[in-house]
């Protein structure tokens, strides 16, 4: 029983740590010379960042997306790019696919 409790505790701690590691420090998120803020547009990211992948998705097929991202809309546009201020690939979600769409949120791309 003790082993089960210890294993359960460890699994919950690892799960919480993994979820927390997915966040991105938006105060220091850059690609190239572009500092990314909540008012950064999709066009700015496309023009300044080394893009790996882009795509649109809806509420119905969204995976691991916080519900707050979809507040008042049915679809999001996601861009995967290489950050110059943080190691690795970053995913940013935009409130549409037009050039004027702005960032809703960003996270690490594990």
Describe the model.
With 110 residues, the protein is α+β, with helices and mostly antiparallel strands. The chain has one domain (25-108). It is 25% helix and 30% strand. It has helices at residues 2-21, 42-48; strands spanning 30-31, 34-35, 50-58, 75-82, 89-94, 103-108. It has a four-stranded antiparallel β-sheet, with helices on one face. The N and C termini lie far apart (34 Å).
Task: Return the average pLDDT rounded to an integer.
Answer: 76
Stretches where pLDDT is under 50 for at least 5 consecutive residues are: 2-19
Order of helices and strands, N to C? HEEHEEEE
Structural class: alpha+beta
How much helical structure, as a percent, in the residues? 10-25%
Could you tell me how far the N terminus lies from the C terminus, measured between alpha carbons in angstroms?
34 Å
For the sheet with most strands, the description reads:
4 strands, antiparallel
* Major beta sheet, strand line-up: 3-4-5-6
Count of beta strands: 6
Number of helices: 2
Shape: globular
Strand content is 25-35%
What is the gyration radius calculated from CA atoms?
Answer: 16 Å
What count of domains describes the coordinates? 1
């Amino acid at each position: 029983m003790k082993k089960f409790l210890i294993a359960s505790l460890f699994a919950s701690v690892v799960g919480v740590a993994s979820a927390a590691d997915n966040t991105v420090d938006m105060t220091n998120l850059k690609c190239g010379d572009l500092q990314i803020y909540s008012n950064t547009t999709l066009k700015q990211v496309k023009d300044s960042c080394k893009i790996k992948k882009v795509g649109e998705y809806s509420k119905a097929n969204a995976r691991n997306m916080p519900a707050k991202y979809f507040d008042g809309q049915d679809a999001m546009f996601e861009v995967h790019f290489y950050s110059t201020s943080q190691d690795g690939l970053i995913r940013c979600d935009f409130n549409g696919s037009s050039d004027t769409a702005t960032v809703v949120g960003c996270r690490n791309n594990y």
